């Protein structure tokens, strides 16, 4: 009918002009639905022929198909850029082309991180943390890595990924018996940088502290937490025990919790504050918990830790 044709034409125009809409369509439609849509008009059939072929080549893996289509679009952009450069004379045009090529080269770059499979739900185009866990630069156990070699993710975080794969590196496969349960995820650099910016952030229950601007002093035995979840719900690695009377020296003043994945965790979130320490915390292990003993040269007397009731 004429109404169906007009809808098809409008959709065709949108898909031809906006590559992101094609990827969005792939996320929401099953392969058979894409095939039905392609049959709606000749124009849609021509436009969707390549995405459907790519999806078939990826065996229905939408995430892999999206990644391949993004690469194809970038390569197409390079070809068009080179073609236009050949038709334009002058050093200025050559300089502009080089700048755009550098931008496209950066866009093709991805960050590869390893994750422990049982801690995550793997979904098309993303992975979702089931509990507090890590993204790591290799398959070593998290406690063997430095803070700069891993990224903490609390429960319920959805991380967009370009591709997911198994562990293939021979040196990684030899590390330990649990490597087989690890997977690799390729992230856009912007996603990795966002997670890295969160590194070093802690959360405290504000009524337990006396606020002196960039110094918080514990008024009772309490915790620093990697997330605002209730301390009883967290694993030991997500907690740092802070004895009464010890100061926390901050890089900036404590701020209210505003991260979208934290604000709805429970009814007491508004009583928490997010803090970034001025220097890494010093801790000592007691039973299964880490006990805060200071920062830098400001170390609490370790022998007194024996008196702490955890």
Structure report:
This protein is an alpha+beta fold and 310 residues long. Helices cover 34% and strands 26% of the residues. It has a five-stranded antiparallel sheet with strand order 13-12-9-16-15, with no helix packed on it. Helix 1 packs across helix 2 and helix 4 crosses helix 5. The radius of gyration is 26 Å and the shape is elongated. Mean pLDDT is 78; it is low at 301-308.
Name the features.
310 residues, alpha+beta, 5-stranded antiparallel beta sheet, 3-stranded antiparallel beta sheet, 8 helices, 19 strands, 34% helix, elongated, disordered C terminus
Structure summary:
The chain is built from eight helices and 19 strands. The C terminus is likely disordered.
Strands across the major sheet, in which order? Answer: 13-12-9-16-15
Helix content: 25-40%
DSSP helix count? 8
Largest sheet: 5 strands, antiparallel
Strand percentage lies at 25-35%
How many beta strands in the DSSP annotation? 19
- Taking all Cα atoms into account, the compactness measure Rg is 26 Å
Low-confidence stretches: 301-308
């Amino acid at each position: 009918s004429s109404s169906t044709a007009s809808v098809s034409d409008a959709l065709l125009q949108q898909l031809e002009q906006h590559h992101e809409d094609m990827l969005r369509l792939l996320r929401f439609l099953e392969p058979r639905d894409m095939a039905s849509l392609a049959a709606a008009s000749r124009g849609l059939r021509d436009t969707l022929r390549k995405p459907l072929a790519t999806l078939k080549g990826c065996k229905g893996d939408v995430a892999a198909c999206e990644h391949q289509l993004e690469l194809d679009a970038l390569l197409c952009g390079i070809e068009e850029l080179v073609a236009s450069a050949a038709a334009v004379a002058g050093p200025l045009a050559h300089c502009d082309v080089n700048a755009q090529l550098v931008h496209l080269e950066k866009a093709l770059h991805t960050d590869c991180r390893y994750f422990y499979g049982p801690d995550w739900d793997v979904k098309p185009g993303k992975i979702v943390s089931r509990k507090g866990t890590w993204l790591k630069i290799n398959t070593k156990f998290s406690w063997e890595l430095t803070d700069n070699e891993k990224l903490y993710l609390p429960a319920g975080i959805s991380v967009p990924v370009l591709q997911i794969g198994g562990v293939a590196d021979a040196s990684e496969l030899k590390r330990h018996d649990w490597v087989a349960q690890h997977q690799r995820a390729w992230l856009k650099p912007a996603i990795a940088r966002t997670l890295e910016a969160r590194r070093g952030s802690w959360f405290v229950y504000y009524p337990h502290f006396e606020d002196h601007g960039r110094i918080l002093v514990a008024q009772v035995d309490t915790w620093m937490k990697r997330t605002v979840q209730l301390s009883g719900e967290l694993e030991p690695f997500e907690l740092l025990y802070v004895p009464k009377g010890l100061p926390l020296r901050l890089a900036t003043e404590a701020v209210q919790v505003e991260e979208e994945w934290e604000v709805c965790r429970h009814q007491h979130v508004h009583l928490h504050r997010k803090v970034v320490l001025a220097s890494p915390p010093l801790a000592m292990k007691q039973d299964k918990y880490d006990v805060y003993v200071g920062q830098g040269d400001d170390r609490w007397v370790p022998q007194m830790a024996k008196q702490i009731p955890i």
